[in-house]
Description:
Elements: H1 6-32, H2 38-71, E1 81-83, H3 85-105, H4 111-131, H5 133-143, H6 146-171, H7 173-188, H8 199-213, H9 235-238, H10 246-273, H11 280-296, E2 303-305, H12 309-314, H13 320-334, H14 337-344, H15 347-367, H16 374-399, H17 410-418, H18 423-430, H19 433-448, H20 452-468, E3 474-477, E4 480-483, H21 489-508
Antiparallel strand pairs: 1-2, 3-4
Helix pairs in contact: 1-2, 1-3, 1-13, 1-15, 2-11, 2-13, 3-4, 3-6, 3-10, 4-10, 4-11, 5-10, 6-7, 6-15, 6-16, 6-19, 7-8, 7-15, 8-15, 10-11, 16-18, 16-19, 19-20, 20-21
Amino acid sequence: MRWFVRGDLDGFFGLALDNLVQILLIDTLCRGVLGFPNELIYQRVMPGVAVSLLVGNLYYARQAMQLARATGRTDVCALPYGINTPSVVAYVFLVMLPAKLAAQAAGDPNPVEAAWRAGLFACVGSGVLELTGALYAERVRRATPRAALLSTLAGIALTFIALGFLLQTFARPIVGLATLAVVLLTYFGRVRFRGGLPGGLVAVLLGTALAWATGLLRDQAAPAAVGLSLPQFCLPQAFAIDWSQAATYCSVILPMGLFNVLGSLQNIESAEAAGDLYPTAPALAVNGLGTLSAAVCGSCFPTTIYIGHPGWKALGARAGYSVLTGLVLTLLILTGTLSYLAWAVPIDAGMVIVVWIGLVMTAQAFAATPRHHAPAVVVGLLPGLGAYAAFVMKCSLRAAGFGVDRPLGQAIELALQREGLFASGAFALEQGFIFTATCLAAATVGVIERRFGLAALWCGLAALLSLTGLMHGYQYLPGDTVLKLGPAGPWAAGYALMALIFLLARWLTVPTDEPGHDA
């Protein structure tokens, strides 16, 4: 097999564009949500992104060539690899933003730096989990129902990814809806534009043209004058965090790292189903090394093995598309060209691709699980919706002036409750919602299958997590609610009662139909 074939060019445009949208997303969230200055973004964060993309893409290309030589085949396709979208969103909104707000509340003169350090810590944690994932991934996957794993991730995808950017799409409808039509046409309609232009590229070009033509970018500041940006050694900063908040970070890092490992494992299996059998352990390990290299060089954002290997293979991509993606994006970032690209191509031009990713991940939670487990998937989605509701409420309250002269507190809960909105439930659900979604969805699968003892075990685990405060324990800061370690007593008791009811179900109930089937 040759290093470069015609199909590698098609594969490159698809994979590079996918990663470029994630890079623009990082740029937008770091500036718009976290308030990062250009120096921090382009001199420290982005060079780390470049290193992580180069490490993984070059390895997976080499792995594909080794497999081709070992088997004598010429149709081997490298594993697609890049920035992990759910982790980008989760770490920005669930780790870095809370760290910034906590630093502000504590009077830290540089809360942005605190947010960046918290992101580095999260990225290191994710990398360690991914690196060691080959040792435990298969056992965890066997023990946890697929509905629980996929629905928990879908809860993040549906809210913080799809819904958040869907609001921006409808806030700027000319750009948003036009590009949405292109994405729906090519990705869901399964058609291609004449001339072989990738649908994602057409969407970005059309969105960019419309954004400039409608004056959306008329008042945009000039691009940052960034020259050569070489990676810096940033590992010490990853551990210069507020350790009192470490448990809060871990309640996000642990489940997100686990999902990254299991998702990568499933994508390796998908490649095997398409005819490319890659050894699991090194593939997962290099994914972890890519994430660790990101953190060591200043990026807060993990990498992953992408879904869609069969699609890249069907395009004719082999090994070269992975090499091209790594090299081109690295040069784009390290030479400072990215700042000009971020200025010229607004996130509005590519945000519908992110919406599409969220939709696909949500749909997969239903499509890849047994039909009769659909109620469990819905249950697993709800905690993510609750966490997003808490996020929206707190953003609205801060915009109304709370958190500065008027601190948040129980008076706000009571005022909202009089209007029929139980904010206390949303704030409790927000803390450790990934654990909550997994436990509730897995317990629901146990009930559907009439394995009531297993359902009780998952509720018992939820009770233990609540006793530690990793689930539902929260406290007020002036402008935020954050995790509070310590017994979240009412919730622990509630889960214990659920476990007891499930344990007694064998003697207190009688079946009305065959287990695991529609009534």
